[in-house]
C-alpha cells in the first residue's frame, strides 16, 4: 500500500521566515538598541565605569527619573482601590470624588463600557467645553489605555490596504512610523523647518502630498504633534488655521497628538487645540485628537490613561472605533479615573486645591527652567545647535559629526552616525539618549533627542558629562 503523500510542514514562529515580515521591519527607537544597551550596562553597575548609574533621558517617563506623583491623584486612586481608606483621614474632596465614582460604577475590579465610564466621559466633555469654549459631546469621547491606543485604532481604520498613506512629521514620534509599518500602510513624510524653530510649513505639506499622489499613494490623513515631539515647537493659532484649511481642501483627516498641551513654556504661544479651531472655523474636516495622563504635569505613565475625541465623523466611523476598542473590553479603570482627575482637578475652595496647585506649579516651573538651562548649554558645545523647547519634554540638538566618525559608524553597520555618537555617549557617561535617525531627519544631518526630566540638582552634572564626552569625541575622530 503506497504511503500517503507528505504535506509540506508549516513554518513555525521559531523558523527564520515564520514571523510577520511587517512586524520584523517595525522599529521603535525610544525603546530600541540604546535602551537595551543601557539596561545591560545597568546590571553591571557598580563596576569599573566612570559613572555609578544610568540617567535615562531617552523617554518621557518623568517618575522614573525622580518626578514625584501628585498627592491628590494617588489619594483618589488609593481610595478607589481600597474604599476602607475613606474611613481614615483622607481630605473631604478626595472622599467625595471616590464616593462619586463608586456610586456610578461597579468599582475598580469590574469592566466598564467599552467607551469608558459614562461619568468620566461626561466630565471630560465638560472640561473640554471649558478649555475651548465650544461644544463637546461625551458620545464622541473614548477612554483608552494611554493616547497610543487611540492613535493605533484610528490608523487601523484609516489604512485599508498597501496604497493608503498617512502624512507624518519629520522628525516624528516613532509610534506613527512603527504602527504604519505594522499595518503595511504608506508613510508620507513632511519635514519640519529646523532653521525656523521646527516650523510646520503648509507649502511643504502641499509638495509632499502632490509627490505622494503622483506615486500612486492614496493619502488619507495628516498627523500633527503639538507641542512637538521630539522637537518641542508650539504651533500658533494662525498655523493651525492654515493646516485645517489645507486638510479640508485636500480631504484629509487630522490626527492631532496633543498630549503635551500643559507643557508650554512661552507666554506668547499658548496652546490652542485643533478642536477649537475646527469648530470656530465651521470646518467640516474630520478630526481625532488625543490626550494622556502620561505627560503634562501628571507624569503618570504607568497608569495608562488616555482619551480620544472625534469631530465631524459619521456614525459608521464612531461605531468602528467602538467595535475596535470593544475587542479589549475596556481601558483600565485606574487610567480612566486619572483622566478624570487630570481634566477636573481640585477647584478653589476644596481642601486639596492649595497643595495641588503648589505641586503642579513646582513641576511646571522646574521643567521650564531645565528646558532653558539644557538648551542654552548645548548651544555652547562646538558644532552643536539646539532650538529652544517651547513645549513638551525634549530637546533635539543637531550635531556636526566628523567624517571619520561617519565612516566608523558605517564600518560597524550602524544606520546613521548619530547611533555611534549616542552609544559612545552612553558608554562614557551613563546618559541614555536616542539617535535622531530614530525619529527621522533631513539627509546629511545628525541629531539626538534628550529629555530634560532629571532633577534640577542633576542637570549641571548631565551638562558637564555631555560636554566632556562631546569634546573627547571630536578629538577622537578628528
Automatic annotation (TrEMBL):
MF terms from GO for this chain are: pyridoxal phosphate binding; transaminase activity
Obligatory cofactor(s): pyridoxal 5'-phosphate
Which Pfam families has this protein been placed in? Aminotran_1_2
Q: Which domain of life is it from?
A: Eukaryota
The residue ranges of the Aminotransferase class I/classII large domain are: 90-464
Q: Name one GO biological process term.
A: L-alanine catabolic process
- SUPFAM superfamilies xref list: PLP-dependent transferases
Locate the region Disordered.
Answer: 1-20
Sorted UniProt keywords:
Aminotransferase, Pyridoxal phosphate, Transferase
Q: Which PANTHER family match?
A: ALANINE AMINOTRANSFERASE, ALANINE TRANSAMINASE
- UniProt record similarity statement: Belongs to the class-I pyridoxal-phosphate-dependent aminotransferase family. Alanine aminotransferase subfamily.
- Subunit-level organization: Homodimer.
Protein name per UniProt: Alanine transaminase
Task: Please name the source species.
Answer: Grateloupia catenata
Amino acid at each position: 500500500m503506497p504511503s500517503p503523500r507528505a504535506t509540506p510542514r508549516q513554518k513555525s514562529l521559531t523558523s527564520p521566515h515564520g514571523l510577520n515580515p511587517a512586524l520584523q521591519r517595525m522599529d521603535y527607537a525610544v525603546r530600541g538598541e540604546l535602551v537595551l544597551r543601557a539596561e545591560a550596562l545597568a546590571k553591571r553597575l557598580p563596576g569599573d565605569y566612570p559613572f555609578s548609574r544610568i540617567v535615562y533621558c531617552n523617554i518621557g517617563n518623568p517618575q522614573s527619573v525622580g518626578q514625584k506623583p501628585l498627592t491628590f491623584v494617588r489619594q483618589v486612586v488609593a481610595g478607589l482601590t481600597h474604599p476602607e481608606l475613606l474611613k481614615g483621614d483622607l481630605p473631604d474632596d478626595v472622599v467625595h470624588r471616590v464616593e462619586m465614582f463608586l456610586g456610578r460604577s461597579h468599582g475598580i475590579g469590574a469592566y466598564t463600557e467599552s467607551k469608558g465610564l459614562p461619568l468620566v466621559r461626561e466630565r471630560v466633555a465638560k472640561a473640554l467645553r471649558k478649555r475651548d469654549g465650544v461644544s463637546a459631546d461625551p458620545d464622541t469621547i473614548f477612554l483608552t489605555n494611554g493616547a497610543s491606543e487611540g492613535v493605533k485604532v484610528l490608523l487601523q481604520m484609516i489604512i485599508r490596504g498597501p496604497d493608503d498613506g498617512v502624512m507624518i512629521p519629520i522628525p516624528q514620534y516613532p509610534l506613527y512610523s512603527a504602527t504604519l509599518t505594522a499595518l503595511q500602510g504608506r508613510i508620507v513624510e513632511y519635514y519640519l523647518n529646523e532653521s525656523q524653530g521646527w516650523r510646520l510649513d503648509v507649502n511643504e505639506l502641499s509638495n509632499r502630498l502632490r509627490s505622494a499622489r503622483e506615486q500612486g499613494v492614496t493619502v488619507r490623513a495628516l498627523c500633527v504633534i503639538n507641542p512637538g515631539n521630539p522637537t518641542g515647537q508650539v504651533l500658533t493659532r494662525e498655523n493651525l488655521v492654515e493646516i485645517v484649511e489645507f486638510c479640508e481642501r485636500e480631504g484629509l483627516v487630522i490626527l492631532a497628538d496633543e498630549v503635551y498641551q500643559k507643557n508650554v513654556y512661552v507666554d506668547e504661544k499658548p496652546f490652542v487645540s485643533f478642536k477649537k479651531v475646527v469648530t470656530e472655523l465651521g470646518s467640516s474636516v474630520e478630526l481625532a485628537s488625543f490626550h494622556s495622563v502620561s505627560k503634562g504635569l501628571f507624569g503618570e505613565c504607568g497608569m495608562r490613561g488616555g482619551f480620544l475625541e472625534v469631530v465631524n465623523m459619521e456614525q459608521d466611523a464612531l461605531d468602528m472605533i467602538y467595535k475596535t476598542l470593544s475587542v479589549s473590553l475596556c481601558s483600565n479603570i485606574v487610567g480612566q479615573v486619572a483622566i478624570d482627575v487630570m481634566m477636573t482637578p481640585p477647584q478653589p475652595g476644596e481642601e486639596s486645591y492649595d497643595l495641588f496647585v503648589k505641586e503642579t506649579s513646582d513641576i511646571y516651573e522646574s521643567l521650564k527652567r531645565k528646558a532653558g538651562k539644557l538648551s542654552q548649554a548645548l548651544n555652547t558645545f562646538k558644532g552643536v545647535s539646539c532650538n529652544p523647547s517651547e513645549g513638551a519634554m525634549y530637546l533635539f540638538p543637531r550635531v556636526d559629526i566628523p567624517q571619520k566618525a561617519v565612516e566608523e559608524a558605517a564600518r560597524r553597520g550602524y544606520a546613521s552616525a548619530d547611533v555611534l555618537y549616542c552609544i559612545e555617549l552612553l558608554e562614557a557617561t551613563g546618559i541614555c539618549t536616542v539617535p535622531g535617525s530614530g525619529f527621522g531627519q533631513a539627509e546629511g544631518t545628525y541629531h539626538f533627542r534628550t529629555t530634560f526630566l532629571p532633577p534640577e540638582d542633576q542637570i549641571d552634572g548631565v551638562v558637564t558629562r555631555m560636554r566632556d564626552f562631546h569634546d573627547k569625541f571630536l578629538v577622537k575622530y578628528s
